[in-house]
Amino acid sequence: MKKTIIYLLLCLVLVACGASVDGEKQKYAEYEQYSDMIMNKYPQFASQVELERNMAEKKYNDAIKVKDDDKKIAALENANRVFENGFVGNYKKFETATYDLENQIKETDRQISDKDFTRKTSQLIDDAKETLKDSENLLKDATTANSGLILSLEREIKNLNDAKGNLEAHVKSINAKNTKKKDKKDEKIDNSSDEPTLADEPAQIKCKRCGTMQTADSETCSSCGAQI
Q: Rounded to an integer, what distance in angstroms lies between the CA atom of residue 128 and that of residue 102?
């Protein structure tokens, strides 16, 4: 009974997450293509990548033989997890984080105007560029894709994402300040428009006899009664 409940819950999770046999097969194919790219780009990592591929391939072939779709999805996910948790998956996350940070540096430079470009802005951009440089050197200096390199990749992924987050927060803070300034300026304009102006006041003329100011449409002086 307990096993049945667990199985049903697993099925519900798979449905809720939108997992499918075709989707997992596609993910596996993408990991295979990605692993080919890594081996071509970094021959020194080929043995580790090939090892992960062989392990994933065995699990994948076993998964294909499963008849029940829900169980097949779970088995295919298990095959893809070999890539995800290994060097191939971490390198993919690393490349994505690198690309995202490079774009965020460009976006920060584009979105922040010269008058808002502070010393902090410059420092954050310099720190982000230094993080990119450190990340590039990590793979350049590595000779093998062992567990130590995977841990280093995980740390660099965090550093890259943190640098991106710092830039995003800085841009958001500046935009919020500018929006607040604009709102205050608009409020001041709205308030000033409610104040009476000379154009709103009726025209006045001076009584020739007593000098009291009267509205232009008055016929007699309100003070001395003389004709206006």
A: 8
Quote the CA–CA distance of 211 and 180 in Å, as a whole number.
Answer: 51
Q: What is the pLDDT along the chain (228 residues), one digit of tens a residue?
A: 454 445 445 454 444 455 899 999 999 999 999 999 999 999 999 999 999 999 999 999 999 999 999 999 999 999 999 999 999 999 999 999 999 999 999 999 999 999 999 999 999 999 999 999 999 999 888 888 888 999 999 999 999 999 999 999 999 999 999 888 887 777 777 666 655 555 555 677 777 777 777 777 777 777 777 776
State the CB neighbour count (10 A cutoff) for residue 103: 11
